[in-house]
Amino acid sequence: RAGGKGEKLLAFSLTEPGSGSDSGAVHTSAEPHGDGWQLTGTKLYVSNGREASTVIVMAATDARRGANGGVTAFLVDTDRPGFRVGRCEKKMGLHGSSTAELVLDHVEVGPEHVLGEVGKGFHVAMTALDVGRVSLGAASLGAIEMATTAALDYAKNRTQFGCRSASTRRSSSSSPTWRCGPRRSARSSTWRRPTRTGWGTDPTGWSRLERAE
């Protein structure tokens, strides 16, 4: 609840040294321990991993089943014994948040730390990623809009051989196809998000479209 109210900064950890796109191949283990669980493993490329006070950790509760009921999501406070932040990536941009490695060394959590249901972690992970992809599409659209506007302004005011280029010949930079095609497609798929088109709370289809764009 504190995370939903903005009182806590959360992080989401899924990717590992041996699993990225294959989200079901989680090697971080969650073994029964007393009435709770004991988590061991390493996560990579975790946004806000250094700053977060609580991390959503995907761990294998039944490695044989994989994504089909073998992955569980846990809420893990970063001040628990055995939890530590490893290497933080050096990035060219996005310096507003860290991208960190997280190490869990026999971190103990209670049953109340299970997010959702045991074995339903893959669904939790995919839901989070779907929403994130739609958001990323919106951010990318903003970048496209800014880059296109800057390029057109430059083309209109560029002077070459004593004349403004745009006034002497038609260039590909002013072509309606170049200007409107990809940008209009991206804008359409982003603006027609699930909440406005009857997709309900399941943005999976639109997130796939965002990735294709």
Automatic annotation (TrEMBL):
Region listing for Disordered, in residue ranges: 14-38, 163-213
Q: Tell me which residues make up the Acyl-CoA dehydrogenase/oxidase C-terminal domain.
A: 119-163
Q: What is this protein called?
A: Butyryl-CoA dehydrogenase
* Low complexity: compositionally biased ranges: 164-175, 187-206
The coiled-coil regions, if any, are: none
Alphabetical UniProt keywords: FAD, Flavoprotein, Oxidoreductase
Matching entries from InterPro entries are given as: Acyl-CoA_Oxase/DH_mid-dom, Acyl-CoA_Oxase/DH_mid-dom_sf, AcylCo_DH-like_C, AcylCo_DH/oxidase_C, AcylCoA_DH/oxidase_NM_dom_sf
Which cofactor is recorded for it?
A: FAD
Q: Which GO terms describe its molecular function?
A: acyl-CoA dehydrogenase activity
SUPFAM superfamilies (alphabetical): Acyl-CoA dehydrogenase C-terminal domain-like, Acyl-CoA dehydrogenase NM domain-like
Q: Family per UniProt? A: Belongs to the acyl-CoA dehydrogenase family.
Acyl-CoA oxidase/dehydrogenase middle domain residues are 11-107
